Amino acid sequence: SSTDPAELDIAFQAWRATSTRPDSSKTPKEQIYAWVREHYPETSKEAQQRIAIICNWAPRGGRPSR
Questions:
Q1: How far is the CA of 39 from the CAs of 14, 19, 42, 43, 58, in angstroms?
Q2: Which long-range contacts (CB under 8 A, 24 or more apart) does 42-48 make?
Q3: What is the structure's pLDDT at 58?
Q4: What are residue 51's phi and psi, to 5 degrees?
Q5: How many Å apart are CA 48 and CA 21, to the nearest integer?
Q6: Phi, psi of 17 (to 5 degrees)
Q7: Which of 1, 11, 39, 52 is the most buried (most CB within 10 A)?
Q8: pLDDT, one tens digit for every residue, the chain (66 residues)
Q9: What is the separation, in whole angstroms, between the first and last Cα of the chain?
Q10: How far apart are the C-alpha atoms of 66 and 50, rounded to whole Å?
């Protein structure tokens, strides 16, 4: 469920892993989604969305300029 503390734990792990080694070729959301899919493939799409919203360090969006 959305109140499950395990989801918050996954979000923290995803944020820590992706924000400390950001990939400039992907948006923060893309990086977070990829990390969650790789490490917690059983996570629902809805949970992935919630996690990406919580973890996004660039909430205004947009792909980074090159």
A1: 9, 16, 9, 9, 22
A2: 43/7, 43/10, 46/2, 47/2, 47/7, 47/10
A3: 83
A4: -65, -45
A5: 20
A6: -70, -40
A7: 52
A8: 555 689 999 999 999 999 998 888 999 999 999 999 999 999 999 999 999 999 888 877 655 555
A9: 39
A10: 28
